[in-house]
Amino acid sequence: MTARDAAETPPAPPTLRDVVAVLNQLYPPALAAEWDAVGLVCGEPSQAVRRILFAVDPVPSVAAEAIERGVDLLVTHHPLYLRGTSSVAATTAKGRVVHELIRAGIALFTAHTNADHANPGVSDALAAALGVTELRPLDPLPAQPIDKLVTFAPADAVERILDVLSAAGAGAIGAYSRCAWTTDGIGTFRPNPGAHPTIGTIGRIETVPEVRVEMVLPRARRDAVIAALLAAHPYEEPAYDVIPLAERPGRAGTGRIGRLDQPESLADFVDRVRAALPATPGGGRYAGDPDRLVHIVAVCGGAGDGYLQTAAGAGADVYVTADLRHHPASEITAETGIALVDMPHWATEWPWLPDAAARLREALGAAGFTVNIEVSTLVTDPWDGRIPGGGSR
């Protein structure tokens, strides 16, 4: 093969294993609720993936669309088998979906509550579609527990220790790595009989210039970081402290709360929601005085009935979500005055699809892969029409 041939040869497509690894980085399975079913449903990890379709629901019509488009991977938000199953026989609608996808060589992957909780995730995409900014989680998950490691070492050993501890998982702060604080000081000790000191003499008090090193680390990496420190430190018995740091709210969690650039009437905000979200036969509904001003906005993609009180308690003027029930909605508006916008479940989650597709495309591109990633616009809201009011009383 000539250099020109090599240059013109398209790069190999990613495998399903490659794509799943990236999806798990974007939407970590550890963020999923305990009851949830996320991850790879069917598919051969070594198969090539050239074309991907994102959709909300793994229903028969979406499976048919995936087959018609000739995709290799279907990524859905909702699980196919949320409560598990002992059979995938084609005697049920879900079983037929599995058979049709496998027969067509299409893998199925689900990112559900892990995508809900991720930052950015489903509710970030909903908030962005509505023009809501300065976002924070409505119901944050606890941040990853963090420790601080403090140790002391001769100056000529510090750089190696920093490298080793960083490789073991210490020193990561946001987008920065190998973060540490160092300061000079004096260490003193006396080697006792049986010791094998790197510096000093048995029975004699020693005074040595040392550097104090401080690094943060995920608590889950505590054992690995300490083991790395003991292996890299020149002293026979290095001194160190591990200090648990106070827990703090994380950036991941359910829903988001933020603000509009300028306050606007609830009527105008309802128009904003109508224009931003895809239309469904069932449409949406709202509660509140159309003339009242709204500024602080809470959102929760999908069923957000359980976070009504949370949204009101957080100071939201209006809460946008789906699947609100009669009694809780009536009670919260009477008690707090919060306005409600109840949209179809599918419509509140659909904005995540193009957002997730763009993030996956970017991540695969950074890894040197070019994949055709598409978004389904097929409306899979279960309702086919809305019955207007106005009958007999």
TrEMBL record:
Binding-site positions, a divalent metal cation: H77, H78, D116, H345, E349
Highest taxon listed in the record's lineage: Bacteria
UniProt GO MF annotations: metal ion binding
InterPro entries: DUF34/NIF3, DUF34/NIF3_bac, DUF34/NIF3_sf, N-reg_PII/ATP_PRibTrfase_C
Keywords: Metal-binding
GO cellular component annotations of the record: cytoplasm
Pfam families the UniProt entry points to: DUF34_NIF3
Family note: Belongs to the GTP cyclohydrolase I type 2/NIF3 family.
NCBIfam families per the UniProt record, alphabetical: YbgI_SA1388 (TIGR00486)
Subunit structure: Homohexamer.
PANTHER family hit by this protein: GTP CYCLOHYDROLASE 1 TYPE 2 HOMOLOG, NGG1 INTERACTING FACTOR 3
Protein name (record): GTP cyclohydrolase 1 type 2 homolog
Organism of this sequence: Acidothermus cellulolyticus (strain ATCC 43068 / DSM 8971 / 11B)
